[in-house]
Amino acid sequence: MRSGSWVFVGALVRLFSVHAASIPFLVCELKVVKPFKRGFTCGDPSITYPYLSNEVISDKLLIIALGECHRARFRSVSSKSFVRNLYVSCLYKELGSFLFGCCVCQSLTNMAKLSIGRLRPHFLHVCGVTYASLNCTPGTYVPKVNCANPDHRLSFFSGHASFALYSMLYLAFYLQARLTWRGARLLRPLLQFFLVLLAVYTGLTRISDYRHHPSDVLTGYVQGALTAYWVVSIPHRPCLVHRSRYMQTPLYNHLGHLHSVDIFREMADCYTGNCATISVEEAPHHCVKYF
Fold first, then answer.
1. Binned average pLDDT, 10 residues per bin, the chain of 291 residues
2. What own/partner pairs with CB < 8 Å and gap ≥ 24 does 4-11 have?
């Protein structure tokens, strides 16, 4: 099979992986599976908070802001891809791993929400009931309350916290790999700090507007951070670099992103994390990371 065919097959496999990872997320969003109906203890103060209709940061705002940042960053990047549209091919190469991680992160979140069915802090308010109307004895278990909206049983764990920390931590890792200017010795950690700060703030707002319990947000932070670290540290097979002519060629760093260097080196073992030079024409195809 020709090299171009292998590139196409590899692209299809990666696209399939992204779509497969998103299946649990889509199943949950389309309401195919109902959340577990959990009861509560009469007199429990953690589910008696008022419902606040306005969210501080919405899903759409986060998605649009993130998408526009990447669009502005990658419009001028050149790409040699079987996809002829420059913008599409750049997004495919640069955002493939990120989108895969997004699908994994949200699928894990929704699976936990549906399986556990934890009641939100404003559960009684949105269901229109009180402990007095239930006529229950404090400390007794109430197995069932009729509530039309199943969303109020999806408290654990916070999807906003997990997605926000995953996204911002991924961008922080990206800056660590790409922002190599000597003058950015303090600028880089400053930008990384604000990215993480934004993610933490997003999760804290979910507590202040009574959408989640503190433990929901904390678990979301942990899940998002672990997913981001896992996506950027997926190991790759080593490749062997042979002598190549003096040329300007794109390189993949340990995050799989491109940068250019002048290369002229004898034979050397090249690994994804510490590779200094590579000849694209001579390197085996399994060394090229398309995401």
1. 64 79 82 88 94 61 52 50 56 74 92 94 93 91 87 92 94 86 85 95 94 97 96 60 38 44 35 42 39 37
2. 4/82, 6/285, 7/82, 7/285, 7/290, 8/82, 10/285, 10/290, 11/82, 11/92, 11/290
Is the separation of the CB atoms in 162 and 221 below 8 Å? yes
**Do residues 151 and 188 touch, judged by C-beta distance below 8 A?**
no
Distances (CA, A) of 291 to 14, 64, 65, 84, 245: 8, 21, 21, 17, 27
Neighbour-count burial for 276-286, b at 16+ CB within 10 Å, e otherwise: ebbbeeebeee
Cβ atoms of 282 and 240 within 8 Å: the answer is no
**Which residue type occupies 207?**
I
Scanning the structure block, which residue is given the tokens 């802090």? 121
Which residue numbers are catalytic? 160, 212
Contact of 187 with 241, CB cutoff 8 Å: no
Query: Can you tell me the distance from the alpha carbon of 206 to that of 120, in angstroms, rounded to the nearest whole number?
Result: 11
